[in-house]
Design goal:
Number of strands: 10
Strand content: 15-25%
Shape: globular
Structural class: alpha+beta
Order of helices and strands: EHHEEEHHEEEEHEHEHHHH
Number of domains: 2
Largest sheet: 7 strands, antiparallel
Length: 318
């Protein structure tokens, strides 16, 4: 038997793979792109938690209302004598996706494979009994987000745990919510206070433009210490700007808006910043530092000004 669920590996946001999993499951038809444009607007950062706390401010994949989630704890699976692989096969046979944590020591095409134990999440969306392997998504040994195969035996040895079963919520309304988008844009440019999600309040967390400026401060400190810089935040910012551009283009099309300026110059600016940071990590050139800091601040402030004008423009049409 062979099962291969719809899954889109070419997603617009993949700097962190749980976002790529979410979008890979969802973005298989035009209507589902509306969910992308209704979300992925606000950013948040908690400096005390380090670089990887800079992320889109939204619920984790298992708590997104766009999905129906089923979960049995590892202890319940064990006490009911349910083998993890049987549970995975049954979910896939029902057209459901499987998110699990596995020891990547046993997962081919991973940096940890046959080298060291490393428990990380993986998305399983198919299997092939003839080849005796699963279809999975994740970051490979070259740190490229990709589709790979995992033999049944290797998956069993990896001891899948914390297994979540996900399916698309058939009752979810895939339509543009322009009022919600405008609200989130106002929060992003710090015009209004951010609405807290269901996590614990942190007084040191910053949001939107302020979070971006805090990331710039982190980079400046790394430059001062002559450290190599984490590239994930700048890659995330590029993805954020590319998604923002496509969102604005769609709104312009729906409402027949012809703004005086094109947001794409912001996208181009952050692509330049990404290349400057990569160049710095390679050469540690002082010139790259000065240009990076100057342009980062410039493009963030330009984006804030642009979005402030754009929010007013769209609001006047509603």
């Amino acid at each position: 038997m062979k099962v291969s669920l719809n899954f889109n590996p070419a997603v617009p946001i993949k700097v962190y793979q749980h976002h790529a999993y979410t979008l890979g499951i969802l973005l298989n038809s035009e209507k589902e792109y509306m969910w992308l444009y209704n979300n992925y607007i606000q950013l948040a950062f908690t400096k005390s938690l380090g670089w990887d706390s800079f992320n889109f401010y939204m619920d984790y994949i298992t708590h997104q209302p766009v999905f129906t989630r089923e979960h049995l704890s590892d202890s319940l699976l064990k006490s009911n004598h349910i083998k993890a692989l049987d549970y995975i096969f049954n979910a896939l046979n029902e057209g459901k996706y499987v998110l699990a944590c596995v020891d990547e020591f046993y997962i081919p095409n991973r940096r940890a494979y046959q080298k060291f134990n490393y428990v990380h999440d993986i998305l399983i969306y198919g299997y092939d009994d003839e080849l005796m392997e699963f279809e999975v998504a994740g970051y490979d040994d070259r740190m490229n987000y990709s589709i790979t195969k995992v033999p049944y035996k290797n998956m069993e040895l990896s001891k899948p745990q914390y297994i979540d079963i996900l399916s698309v919520n058939s009752k979810y309304p895939f339509e543009m919510n322009i009022k919600s988008i405008l609200l989130q844009l106002k929060q992003y440019i710090n015009e209004i206070d951010n609405l807290l999600l269901g996590d614990m309040y942190r007084s040191d967390r910053t949001y939107g433009i302020e979070a971006c400026l805090d990331i710039l401060d982190m980079y400046k400190e790394e430059f001062r210490l002559n450290h190599l810089c984490d590239i994930r935040p700048i890659y995330l910012l590029v993805e954020h700007k590319e998604c923002m551009y496509k969102r604005i283009e769609l709104i312009n099309k729906i409402y027949n808006i012809k703004p005086e300026e094109d947001y794409y110059y912001i996208v181009e600016g952050f692509l330049i910043l990404k290349n400057l940071l990569l160049k710095y990590n390679y050469t540690q050139s002082d010139r790259s530092i000065d240009v990076f800091v100057e342009k980062f601040h410039k493009y963030i402030m330009e984006e804030k000004r642009y979005l402030n004008t754009y929010i007013s423009l769209v609001s006047n049409l509603l």
